[in-house]
Structure formats: C-alpha cells, structure tokens
C-alpha cells in the first residue's frame, strides 16, 4: 500500500523536473554561451568588418558601378582586384569568390560568398558528407567543403604563390560566409598542411575568418588550428550551433523553425561528455568571436559587445530558441553589428588616448595571451579526453600520432622497418628529437647508427 501511495508523489517529482528542464531550456540565451569569455580588443577584431564588406563585394557584378553597396562602401579599390570567379567559372565545384590585393592593409584576401538557395551545386557541396567520411590530419572534416577548397587551391595555386613571393610582408587571408566560411576554413587547413605549394609560406602569415561558420571539422582540429582560423558568430545564429548533419538542415530549409526546435530538444538530452568523445562530431572552427547585442526580456538592440575565446567544452553546443536564429545568419546584419562594435572599441581607445608605442606593446601582449590561451585549450582538450587531441611538442610542432596522416611518420616507420635489410642514414637531429619524444624507433635507429660505425 505504501508503494502505491508513493507513485503519485514520484509522478509529481518527475513532472516538476521536466518542467524545470523545459523552463531552463527556453530561457537559454546566446549570452550564456560566451558569458565567461574575455572581451575582444580593437586590434584583433579590426579585420572582421572589413572582410565582411569584401565578402559582400563578391555579390556585385561590377565593382566600379555597384548596386548593393553598404553604407560607407565596400572599401575596395577596383584596380587592386586580381580576379573574380562566378558560378560559370567554378562550374559548381565551389561558390563564387574574388582575389583582392589589399595594399592598404598589407593583405592578400580571397573572399568567398555564402550559400545561394537557387543553386543546386551549392547543395551538392553540402550534401557530399556523412559522419566520419573524411579524415585529415588526425581529425574529421566535411568532405564536400574540403573538395571545394581543394578545387579553389588547385585553380589559384600559381597566382597565390606568385603574390605570396612578390609580397613577402603581406598576410594571406581566406574569408567566407556560411557555405563560403567552411570552404575558407578548409583552405586554411590545406594551405598550412601543404605550405610548400605556396612557396613554403610561414604559418604565421596565414589567416582565416569564417563569418557565420559552418561546423566543418572535429574538435581536435578546431582547437589545434585556432592560431590560424577565426570564427565570427552574431548572437543567436543557428548554423554554428547546429550539431546535426548539414544536409538535414538544408533539406528542411522551408521548415527550419520546426526542425531547429526538435533538434534543440533532442541535442539537449545528450550528455556533453558523450558529444565531446565522439570523434566524428563536427564543430565551428578555430578561435570564436561572439557578437552579443541583445539581452533576455529586453526589447531592441543594445551596443554590441564582442567576446572571444578558444573554448573546448560549451562550444556553441545548444541551439537558441529565438526568432532571430535565422536573421542573425545574414552577412548584412553581421557586417552592420561588427562595424558598430568596432566603432565602439575605437571610440573607447580614443578616450583612453593610447600612445603608439604603448599600442605596439599591447599588440605584442595580445599575441602572447592568444598563444597562452591556445595552449590552455589544447591542454583542456587532452584533459577531457577529446579523441586524437594532444599537446604540441617542445619543438613547437605538433606530434604526429595518426596512421597515414603525416608523411613524417610514414617515412620514419619505413626507415625503421627496412633497417634489417639496408642501412639507412638518419640525421642526428632526427635521432635526438625522437629520443626526446620517447619514441622506441629512435632508439632502434641509434643502435643501427652505432653498428654502422
């Protein structure tokens, strides 16, 4: 009898728990995702509004007679435009893009436009992927976006190499919005891996700004390339938070609110530990910049604040139930709010009247802080047992742990495997490095070298 009497009590407790969960889920706002992050500075955020305008310029047919120019213009000198590729030129392999030589900012910019809802080829790029389909550098990436990036690099490799060698002090920047953001992120990843294709360009000269980024790489890659790739998210944007396969979203693009609500409830029930340990799960790449300009239970937009971090857990995991989830994805709104945020940062700097020497010191301090934050994120990924996550070696390069992903490892294994048949000469630097990394193959090679002597 006592058990029967306790059933209604258990039902009440269960209903209260469900109501509490639903209430908290509905109250989850975009500000919660980045509330513990630090504030971005004007120096690091300066390229974002400018690159947004460059991406908008891809939509124009003639930059000398623009039709959709934003306030203040695109900031592009038509004489410095190297090339412009349309859908006719790319033949559906990649979205349209421009290559611009920005002498004012010492930058070589390749800007890629976002998804065109009327183009079937864009959908084919997004649909060309399944979880775990493509593995690169010890992690998983979106196969269709990687193929599009490979096509762009192959098409423009020669001219990019010429520009990089002709202007050794210029940075090489890849920028894109939505679909283009994924292609830009994959371009940065491929160029870093195959820097010899562009005249052995230094990693520090390569940058990527993914505006409203697609989730295109696994967590270990997203953190490892945070020194090169930057993602910019406006408030409630749905795409960086959508943990489902991209094809599910774009198949249901005309019923997106319904899909987002159902996926939101389902993903909330999945423990975060389980999500982190799924090696195939894709994430928004690199360092994240979150523009927050609305507050819960308040009408209208507020002065935007930009927060930044290299998070591992809590990395835009949950969709925000908001009527602005799709409008915040528009490149026009992102450019407008990024420009407002930048103006506020510059106004604050003018009030503080920071001298030029102190500004340079602050830039050096900022670079050092970003490097330390990047290392802390890598350490956090290892602590959370993120698949294929590891710390950089003491030599400043990443260890190669994955089979078939790095030529260095395969070379080392082949030399060890063939040492019994033919003697292979190995440099002392390689021997010492392997011994310091506690690699047994290094000890074997050392024995072989002594035997030769």
TrEMBL record:
Q: Does the keyword Hydrolase apply?
A: yes
Task: Kindly provide the name given to this protein in its UniProt entry.
Answer: Fungal lipase-like domain-containing protein
Q: Which domain of life is it from?
A: Eukaryota
Q: Where do the Fungal lipase-type domain residues begin and end?
A: 109-244
Q: Which GO terms describe its biological process?
A: lipid catabolic process
Q: Which organism is it from?
A: Gossypium tomentosum
Q: Which residues form the Mono-/di-acylglycerol lipase N-terminal domain?
A: 9-75
- Region (Disordered): which ranges? 395-425
What UniProt keywords apply to this chain's record, in alphabetical order? Answer: Hydrolase
- Molecular functions (GO terms): hydrolase activity
Compositional bias, Low complexity, is annotated for: 412-425
